[in-house]
């Protein structure tokens, strides 16, 4: 069977990784922004094969994602549009005295402003996935991390988020969220914009502070400073940046937002985000999780350039290296009405709502999974199509979704018994549509999205039959779904109608 390179270790929508090693297991968490459940937890014994075992935000009553809409903002000098999504940003996972801690920020947009709600969730058994309700703490910033130092715990984070933010530190009672010290600025970085993603490590009597700078795209880099006192002053590493792909021709670009750790042999590693960016500027999978070897040169840490292959680690089988506990990897948009979904082994029943996937706050009837393969396909079949759906203006099908501004989909439109291809990208002012009117209402309609690094192909097939019966309704360059953003592609099935409460049966939904 064909093998894939080791990197990325978590492919697809997997930005802002953080990792902790406990009893021979590695546990990793990522950002999820506006998708629910939030903050997936992955486990591995060997850093090669990973299993999605739970989600730290997995109950509707833990927090709300309603105000996590995506804002469009211009980028200076490039003319591109940044898509800044609210929701769950840059978690950190740590372990102390029998308890796992995940600390994170929920960015909400009341009145269009960014407001940060910082919180801690905990569990004693990471495999059961029974995470606590959030304990909130007062911090006007993002990207919080935890340092345990003796009997004290410290939060370090990126204060007052913006291009010229600083890294702040304070002592905290993690059980109550109460600050036990004043909040102090400990470092402002080396001069790059957006100093963020801080992590503190204690080694040989030094406190090492590692952060990201330069923004999460072209200028992204990792820098480091150290101090004998946790409160500083922090002196920068003379070899900064200690990790970056900027100004290189590497295939893996935008590397940054790193967490450092040691394996069982004492070897140092970093998990970081990056993108697979081709010569045409496409990085359709978004920010993914990569692994790179770390080295201590004297008293400072550095990381090897992130590559698709890592020496002395085996290639991985692309079909088996990333698995998931049953149903734990399904995703919904924001505050889902979970009563609209019935999941069986081979089928999913969707109950319609009038909300489409273009809505910035309300959750549509949509269930999906992260696109994991750069080359693959996703399928779903609508069964028992009804003549009575005409008056409901039902639209239902399969979509590749990033946010309310960007999606490509193929669906059945009951108003005129048509199959429709639609591409929307408001950031690039793209809107394309193609319709095929069917001769009659189909009893069964199969829908498919095929994808490569360069292209999405959207296809349909009426009834059964051979693969040769597939009709390609539309294609689009993946550049049309690529741009400066935070999220990655989620492929899912949806059902929207003017009449709520219709039930549709989807068979054999799968995502590569």
List keywords for this structure.
Tachylectin-2, Chain A, hydrolase activity, hydrolyzing O-glycosyl compounds, Jelly Rolls, Beta-xylosidase C-terminal Concanavalin A-like domain-containing protein, 512 residues, Glycosyl_Hydrlase_43, 2 domains, 0% helix, mainly beta, six-stranded antiparallel sheet, Glyco_hydro_beta-prop_sf, seven-stranded antiparallel sheet
Could you explain how this protein is built, in words?
The protein has two domains: 3-324, Tachylectin-2, Chain A, CATH 2.115.10; 332-511, Jelly Rolls (Sandwich). The protein has a seven-stranded antiparallel beta sheet with strand order 30-31-42-33-38-39-40, with no helix packed on it. Strands 32-41-34-35-36-37 form a six-stranded antiparallel beta sheet, with no helix packed on it. It is built from no helices and 42 strands. It is an all-beta fold and 512 residues long. Belongs to the glycosyl hydrolase 43 family.
